[in-house]
Amino acid sequence: MCVLAGFGELPADEVLLSDIVIRSADGEQRLAGRVVAEGTAGELLLEDPAGRMRQLSGAEVVGREDRRGVWQPADAEQLGQLLKTEAGSGFEVYQTEHYLVCSNCSEGYNEFIGRLLETVHAQYFDFWKKLKVDVVSAGRPLPVLMFQSESEFQSYAGRIHPETGFEGVPGFYSVRDNLVLVVDLTRDRSLRDVSAVRKKLADRPLQVATVVHEAVHQLSFNSGLQQRFADFPVWYSEGLSLYFEPPAERAAVLWSRPGQVSPRHHPEFVRLVRDETLPVPLSDLLVNDQAFQSADAAVAAYAESWGLVSYLLKKKPVEFAEYARRLQRLQPLRAVTGSERQQMFTEAIGETPAELSVRLIPWVRRLRVAR
Questions:
Q1: pLDDT digits 0-9 by tens, 13-68
Q2: 140 vs 54, 99, 155, 195, 205, CA distance in Å?
Q3: pLDDT, tens digit (0-9, with 9 covering 90-100), for 266-320
Q4: Buried (b) or exposed (e) across 347-358, using 16+ Cβ within 10 A?
Q5: 83-130 tens-digit pLDDT
Q6: The sheet that has 61-69: what strands, in order across it?
Q7: C-alpha to C-alpha distances, 38 to 3, 6, 120, 223, 228, nearest whole angstrom
Q8: Residue 177's pLDDT is what?
Q9: Whole-angstrom Cα distance, residue 48 to residue 71?
Q10: What Cα–Cα distance (Å) separates residue 166 from each residue in 4, 98, 157, 229?
């Protein structure tokens, strides 16, 4: 059941649908979709059939008509056609069991990434099953858009997120659009089979790590682990994806399972810790996201997030699972204060940040990257 917009409790098979008229600098625009959430200041979160969400302020909405009904998201054919239309000529759709991949890359690359995504999907659900945290399959294909050239990737990324710079970024997950975007680092459209792609990517581990990392973000927001536009701690979201991402050079798709020591973030963690002190105190990392917004502090914040999630999953898995369950209850458009974050973490984990830091630093230092 859910309660929205004065309609009271809606039956499980019904949602609140809305036709919205908004006013912007470009004039009036009409939108339609399901109402996901409403904020206390009149904000509205609307999802369209393609799974894209739009957050609207109360001032933007000049007309609104609500009704109860059964939600009908776009099917695979409709979503694939939409992606092809928006991506442009030369793009084709490659569908796997759980993913819809729109790409202008080589056949071999499409197949390799499809296999990698399905491996991550299987490991993700097995991971949470072992921790006894309830997650569910999305029930529809998850969209992935792949570009053979960086210029195409940059152009599309800049079009959907003009407020963000993507220089040097090999891929990302758009929470708003529920879409993973990746650029093909092989730069080779002649690769016709998986073995050729695997050989090429063996020297480019960042490609595999990026796909895994962004796929975990997408799975988290489509399995009930996290709610899009809810106020999740960034260290948790990023730390979890970082925990999954390290490649495995001997595996068929150069990745096998989560929990490997990160060849990127372990050295950074060790390098940045001085005098048994973390560059970003855990007390700050846990309660606010400021370190991730600073170029100077972001490297440390990511390294610490990887280290913290790794430590908790190895040493306190039951407590981490309880923490994950508490975060599952967070709702879109509802702000969480720093003190609430602190309380949620301490009650679930059973340690204060100061107590945890004392054990975290030497534990991470003892880890060794697989050779």
A1: 689 999 999 988 778 999 999 999 998 888 999 999 999 999 999 889 999 999 99
A2: 20, 8, 27, 29, 29
A3: 999 999 998 889 999 999 999 999 999 988 899 999 999 999 999 999 999 999 9
A4: ebbebebeebbe
A5: 999 999 999 999 999 999 999 999 999 999 999 999 999 999 999 999
A6: 53-56, 44-47, 27-38, 15-24, 61-69
A7: 10, 11, 33, 21, 13
A8: 97
A9: 10
A10: 37, 27, 7, 21
Q: Residue 244 to residues 45, 221, 240, 250, 257: CA-CA distances in angstroms? A: 30, 15, 7, 16, 7
Verdict on whether the full-model pTM lies above 0.85:
yes
N- to C-terminal Cα distance for the chain? 51
For range 193-198, the mean pLDDT: 93
Residue of 275, 279, 284, 108 whose CA lies nearest to 199: 108
Identify the CA nearest to 252 among candidates 171, 183, 193. 193
Point out which residues pair with 38 in neighbouring strands.
44
Q: Which of 241, 129, 238, 251 is nearest to 198 (CA)?
A: 251
Angle at 353 between CA 352 and CA 355, to 5 degrees: 65
Do the strands 44-47 and 53-56 form a parallel or antiparallel pair, or are they unpaired?
A: antiparallel
For CA atoms 54, 235, 310, 145, the dihedral sign is positive
